[in-house]
Task: inverse folding
């Protein structure tokens, strides 16, 4: 009579192997193409923000975990804090002052994620909640995206960029506004901002789109950034990390609504294709809305959830006060998740419905 | 008698604080606490109304039948609020303008009708006045805490607009703690009030939990001491 | 539970339950003829028109063997299904082969389907054609720690250790031995655990190949479990409710349709032991239901007991009443006794009346009526009424005489006191105490008679005698008696000056009548 191992667990006796940590890591990897494109178009700022945000995210998560008397290293290793920091770093303007990033990330991790109970318990997408806090608190800093690098009068080195972020001035003493100046000495807002302002000035859509900040399919920089995130998203889809429901639902509803509005309404709608490749649509569709914790969890529910986000983005862009509305749309849809989940439960085997 | 009074004081200030525990009167609490002085103004107004309405209601309670007590209470409260409103209009006009609709809205402050119903209609005038005073102080304290924190976080100042309440001489009271390039709007906007309120409540719960823990520990140590003496 | 439908389909389950297991495969490959014979017997028994044998597509040899064996049989078909866990589950295989779903809480027979394992078909053939009982079965012994993994005929009851030794087992550190498959089997702690009829596999895996589940992490609601679930449940929601012990929600999300296949826990990236949570919750819910049934039973039992006690009490009371009545009847035969009782009752009533506040009014009213107006209470005997009236009148007369003689008030009080005491005691007697009352009444009557006699001789003496005789009775009465003497004496004081016997008699009779009326109206 020999006694075997004391590992006495319920069946099944094994696991597939992919862990939560791997899922998080994979999502991080999938942002690489977008990240590189952002670096190319918007300079080193994104990198500095990335380091800053991830550092603050991990630090604040560690602090709260120690206060909550949880296992710090083990929980940190799940990579969710890193991912939240990363996503926020990619969303905020590259040259935003350091304290903006710190407040945003700390809010996202401490209040939105940990105070609700940590990973898996947060009702809202932490990165987007942090982003919204920043957007309503510091509207100026959060909407001052620089025009793309090739159009700028001054381009900054990495050290210079860090200097701007931490002090507000470059080494040569230029402030943010001066740094945003174009080659011809004028300044220009982001494509979506510009579109709204120009519309208010009674310009037609085609007139607006002929401005130099617009490319063929969207903002001259953001169309490529969006394409890069689309690529990363397809990688995630292929690896089975995310499912098609949410991104497709979101992109389709945004596209369809834009088509309808363009076809029926007056000449005030951002054109459909450009709509998809400007702002943070692809980033939002594949990296933000698909955050499983705060998204709907039933197959049908995911489509509705995605479509809801798409519709909200369209409404905010079309009629809202803010130029872009990914973050607001995601948060509003997060609120609807319990309702969506409740009404979209799949038909269980052996039950008639 | 004194034990009962101590209870009333403790209830109002801490254990049954209208803002932190009963969560009553949150509407004005969240709406006007964007600066310390606003909070103070509304706090004092509420405090006064609470005390006199509690006193009045405890005096007239035997003539008020059960069926119509709420309208009667509201009328009493509304009269005092009107008095306060007129006084503020006369003497602190700036604050009156800055608090706006929230002064007449004191009538609907559940903390006041709540005390009238829960305490003043059942107790004598002295206890009721004390209860009103303590509840008012407890409420005002939270208003001030929230108002101060939001003002500091939102615009980096403290006692901004003191002249609205205290007259021109108080203009110099404003303290600039630090200066922002950009205001932290969230603290000034209503969501900031909600978040701040949540954090204050959390803080109170932490303190209560710590105290409860201490009590348990004290009991334990006593037990241990007894064991050693027996041995 | 008889099936609502006749059985028209027999399915033989040749789909292996779980990965690693090949016992059914072996059986089908080597005993296909026997299995088909068994299938025919089963088909005959349930009178099914068609029989389908379902086999996974990763068992070509078994498919070939069974196809050969069923070549000449028209209504037994071999169907190949894709290899995907958990197709071997009864409900899943039925859906795969027929497209039908077994209703929740139902059995396949509700659809007119019966499913048996190929092993069962083989055992049926052995039992019916060869007359052999089931004493052995095919067991897969497998795992990376075995030198020669294989399928063996194992006698039921064979210790696991023997099988492992037979296959050349070299245990590794923290060796796990699983009885059954990796998905639904259970770890065994003792190697002497025997093979039973359902043991299809002994698995001794290496930790490398089948790593034990790591520590549980937070659920990120990724939904992989929902994709894997063959019952299309939402395991991520279920685990949430299971942890919160929200049993209503668990039922709402159909926890009991979970077949515990383990697919969800297997794919979970956070390595949450989902099945364990579900099992615990199911057990909890069942326990609560048992408790409910138990407490319901207890409640019924309690109510019945209460009912019984009440019934017994009523019976007892009835019995008492009957016996009391019997006794009363016996007394009735003795007329003098009857009179005495009646007298006592009447007197008691009269006194009660005297003590009430309304007495003044009733007295004045009754003055106008005649004394012969008899009431139900005084009906029994006119003599008794007279006696009562006499007694009261006498008392009053005495008092009047006393006052006239300016006798001490204390004496009057003394007198009144016992009288009142008597009243209260009579008031409180219940039917059960009739006997005692009768005695008391008799005693009083006696005392009064004596008093009357004594009065004729000398009034002062009587007073003394009266107090004496009444005193012992006062002891048995309630103490409250002391409060009332003044009230009681009021009507007495009304008539002292006109102390004529006849009139007083009338008054007393009227009092008694009023009393009786009051009693009636009450």
Result:
């Amino acid at each position: 009579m020999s006694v075997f191992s004391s590992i006495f667990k319920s069946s099944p006796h094994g696991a597939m192997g992919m862990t939560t940590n791997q899922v998080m890591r994979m999502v991080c990897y999938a942002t690489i193409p977008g990240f590189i494109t952002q670096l190319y178009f918007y300079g080193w700022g994104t990198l500095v923000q990335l380091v800053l945000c991830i550092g603050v995210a991990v630090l604040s998560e560690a602090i709260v975990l120690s206060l909550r008397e949880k296992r710090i290293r083990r929980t940190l290793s799940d990579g969710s804090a890193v991912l939240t920091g990363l996503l926020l770093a990619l969303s905020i303007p590259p040259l935003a002052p350091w304290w903006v990033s710190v407040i945003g990330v700390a809010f996202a991790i401490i209040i939105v994620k940990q105070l609700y109970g940590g990973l898996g318990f947060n009702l809202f997408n932490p990165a987007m909640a942090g982003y919204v806090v920043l957007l309503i608190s510091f509207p100026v800093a959060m909407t001052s995206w620089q025009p793309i690098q090739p159009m700028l009068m001054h381009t900054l080195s990495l050290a210079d960029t860090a200097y701007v972020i931490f002090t507000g001035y470059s080494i040569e003493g230029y402030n943010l506004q001066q740094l945003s100046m174009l080659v011809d000495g004028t300044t220009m807002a982001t494509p979506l901002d510009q579109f709204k302002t120009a519309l208010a000035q009674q310009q037609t859509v085609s007139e607006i789109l002929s401005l130099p900040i617009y490319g063929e399919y969207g903002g001259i920089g953001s169309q490529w950034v969006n394409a890069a995130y689309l690529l990363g998203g397809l990688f995630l889809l292929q690896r089975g990390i995310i499912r098609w429901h949410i991104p497709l639902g979101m992109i389709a509803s945004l596209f369809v609504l834009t088509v309808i509005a363009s076809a029926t309404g007056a000449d005030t709608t951002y054109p459909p294709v450009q709509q998809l490749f400007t702002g943070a649509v692809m980033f939002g569709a594949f990296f933000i809305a698909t955050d499983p914790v705060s998204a709907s969890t039933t197959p049908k529910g995911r489509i509705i959830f995605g479509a809801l986000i798409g519709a909200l983005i369209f409404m905010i862009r079309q009629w809202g006060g803010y130029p872009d509305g990914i973050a607001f749309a995601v948060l509003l849809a997060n609120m609807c998740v319990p309702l969506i989940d409740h009404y979209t439960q799949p038909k269980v085997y052996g039950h008639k419905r | 008698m004194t034990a009962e009074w101590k209870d009333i004081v403790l209830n109002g200030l801490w254990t049954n604080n209208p803002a932190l525990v009963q969560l009553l009167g949150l509407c004005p609490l969240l709406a006007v606490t964007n600066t310390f002085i606003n909070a103070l103004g509304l706090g004092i107004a509420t405090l006064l109304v609470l005390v006199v309405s509690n006193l009045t209601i405890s005096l007239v309670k035997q003539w008020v039948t059960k069926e119509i007590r709420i309208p009667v209470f509201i009328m009493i409260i509304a009269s005092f609020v009107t008095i306060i409103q007129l006084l503020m209009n006369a003497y602190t006009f700036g604050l009156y303008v800055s608090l706006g609709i929230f002064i007449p809205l004191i009538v609907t402050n559940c903390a006041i009708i709540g005390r009238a119903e829960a305490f003043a209609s059942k107790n004598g005038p002295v206890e009721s006045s004390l209860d009103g005073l303590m509840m008012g102080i407890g409420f005002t304290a939270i208003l001030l805490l929230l108002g101060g924190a939001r003002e500091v976080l939102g615009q980096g100042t403290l006692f901004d607009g003191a002249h609205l309440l205290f007259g021109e001489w108080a203009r110099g009271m404003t303290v600039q703690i630090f200066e922002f390039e950009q205001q932290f709007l969230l603290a000034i906007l209503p969501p900031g009030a909600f978040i701040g309120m949540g954090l204050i409540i959390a803080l109170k719960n932490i303190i209560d939990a710590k105290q409860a823990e201490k009590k348990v520990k004290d009991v334990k140590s006593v037990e241990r001491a007894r064991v050693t003496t027996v041995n | 539970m008889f099936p609502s439908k006749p059985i028209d389909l027999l399915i033989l389950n040749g789909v292996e339950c779980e990965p690693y297991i090949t016992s059914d495969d072996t059986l089908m490959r080597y005993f296909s003829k026997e299995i088909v014979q068994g299938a025919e017997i089963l088909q005959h028994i349930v009178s099914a028109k068609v029989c389908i044998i379902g086999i996974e597509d990763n068992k070509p040899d078994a498919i070939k063997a069974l196809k050969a064996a069923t070549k000449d049989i028209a209504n037994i078909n071999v169907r190949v299904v894709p290899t995907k866990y958990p197709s071997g589950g009864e409900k899943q295989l039925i859906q795969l082969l027929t497209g039908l779903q077994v209703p929740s809480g139902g059995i396949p027979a509700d659809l007119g389907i019966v499913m048996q394992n190929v092993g069962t078909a083989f055992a049926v053939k052995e039992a019916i054609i060869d007359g052999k009982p089931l004493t052995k079965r095919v067991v897969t012994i497998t795992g990376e720690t075995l030198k020669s993994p294989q399928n063996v005929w194992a006698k039921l009851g064979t210790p696991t250790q023997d099988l492992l030794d037979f296959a050349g087992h070299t245990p590794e550190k923290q060796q796990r031995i699983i009885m059954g498959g990796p998905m639904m089997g259970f770890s065994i702690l003792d190697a002497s655990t025997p093979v039973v009829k359902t043991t299809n596999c002994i698995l001794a895996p290496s930790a490398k190949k089948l790593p034990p589940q790591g520590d549980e992490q937070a659920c990120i609601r990724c939904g992989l479990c929902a994709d894997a679930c063959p019952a299309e449940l939402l395991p991520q929601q279920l685990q949430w409710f299971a942890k919160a012990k929200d049993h209503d929600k668990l039922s709402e999300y159909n926890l009991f349709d979970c077949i515990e296949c383990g697919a969800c826990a297997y794919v979970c990236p956070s390595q949450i032991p989902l099945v364990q949570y579900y099992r615990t919750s199911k057990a909890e819910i069942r326990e609560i239901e048992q408790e409910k049934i138990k407490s319901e039973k207890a409640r019924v039992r309690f109510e019945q007991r209460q009912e019984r006690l009440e019934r017994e009490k009523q019976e007892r009371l009835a019995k008492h009443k009957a016996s009391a009545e019997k006794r009363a009847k016996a007394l009735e035969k003795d007329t003098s006794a009857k009179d005495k009782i009646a007298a006592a009752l009447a007197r008691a009533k009269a006194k009660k009346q005297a003590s009430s506040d309304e007495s003044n009014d009733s007295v004045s009213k009754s003055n106008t009526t005649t004394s012969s107006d008899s009431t139900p209470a005084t009906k029994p005997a006119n003599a008794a009424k007279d006696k009562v009236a006499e007694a009261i009148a006498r008392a009053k007369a005495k008092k009047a005489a006393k006052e006239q003689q300016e006798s001490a008030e204390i004496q009057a009080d003394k007198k009144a006191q016992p009288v009142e005491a008597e009243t209260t005691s009579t008031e409180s007697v219940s039917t059960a105490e009739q006997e005692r009352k009768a005695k008391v009444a008799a005693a009083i009557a006696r005392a009064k008679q004596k008093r009357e006699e004594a009065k004729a001789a000398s009034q002062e003496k009587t007073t003394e005698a009266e107090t004496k005789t009444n005193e012992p009775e006062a002891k048995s009465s309630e103490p409250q008696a002391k409060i009332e003497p003044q009230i009681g004496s009021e009507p007495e004081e009304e008539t002292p000056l006109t102390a004529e016997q006849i009139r007083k008699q009338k008054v007393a009779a009227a009092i008694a009548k009023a009393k009786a009326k009051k009693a009636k109206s009450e």
Residues 2-230 of chain B form one domain.
